[in-house]
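Observation: inputs received (chain + magnesium ion).
Thought: call the complex predictor directly.
Action: predict_structure
Action Input:
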Amino acid sequence: MADPVVVLRNVWKTYREGQSIITILRNVSAIIYRKEIVGVHGPSGAGKTTLLKLIAGLDRPDRGEVIVDGYNLNMLDDLGLSLIRNTVVAYIPQDYGLIPEFTVWENIELPLLIAGIDRNEREKKIYEVLEYMGLTAKIKAYPRKLSGGEKQRVAIARALVTTPTVLLADEPTANLDWENAVRVAELLHKVRDDFGTTVILVTHDPRLLEYVDRSMNLIDGILKDKEGMPYAKLH
Ligand SMILES: Nc1ncnc2c1ncn2[C@@H]1O[C@H](COP(=O)(O)OP(=O)(O)OP(=O)(O)O)[C@@H](O)[C@H]1O
Ligand SMILES: [Mg+2]
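Observation:
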């Protein structure tokens, strides 16, 4: 039985630009199911990052509902959203979002510290995730000493360490060569298979198309399926 894990219901998002208001998302509705890997495509400026941030609880819609793993994000205050970000969703920004002054270990530890996990448990989780991602040799490295592929894997490790239900990745292969892009794509598949994680990734990269279960296109503020039909209705 398909299990909806992200539900967008009539979501609108506008930004003010000087005197005018620009509409980024127009009545977007969609359902993403547990363990799906969904690719969100669309031209630059279409609102793909905006959409991911709404699902991550990093921003709020003007109208409409965002429901993630049963939590209606509209009902949560800022503290509630920060708790969700630490447990239910994890967002990997395009620039990886690593803290340059922190080592790989410290970057991965941060979400666990925020979640109040005790030291022994933190160490166990960090070792596990470093091993899983093939990063044990880089524990003490600072982000500036890492390759693009390694930075992306550290960013994924930091997102995974709290075992989120939904992993959101913004252009995860944008700055990577073919070999590293494939490695990241395969890793996201492995994460889905091993942990049952739902993965939503934004990408311009046609190489990733074969790695997603379903593609969504964001065009003129409307989310459409591969055939160009808007996801206007919830089933
Ligand atoms: N905080 C903000 N304030 C005002 N305008 C914003 C804000 N964030 C995004 N925008 C505008 O919203 C539009 C959509 O931005 P968004 O970053 O979601 O696009 P995108 O599809 O991710 O683009 P890209 O592929 O280039 O990353 C852009 O025109 C952008 O300038
Ligand atoms: Mg973007």
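Thought: report the result.
Final Answer: Residues 48-49, 170 surround magnesium ion (ligand 2) (CB under 6 Å). Residues 95-163 form one domain.
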